[in-house]
User: Fold this.
Amino acid sequence: MALTSVAVNKQSVSQSMIGQFSVVWELKGFDGEVELFSATFSEDYKTGDAPSRVVKGFKDKMQAYINSYKTEQALLANPLMDTAVTIVQNALEV
Assistant:
């Protein structure tokens, strides 16, 4: 299945200390209507922080996750992986 779209949703904000917060967002990946993955990411926010720092933190983490997912799927879809599975299966004694 190919990753065709993503959705980002706000999940929660919790205050750990006065003026310090943990912001949690969820990233979902889809192939059409089929959900391929769901992952949560958090960023710390302190009163007075630039929102752009938090946005960049989320974007960087989420993009790294997407890139990793695509790399993993490419390896899984590699025909050499199917060949290796067949070799192992055929070598097993029952």
Observations:
- Helices lie at 51-77, 79-91.
- The mean pLDDT is 96.
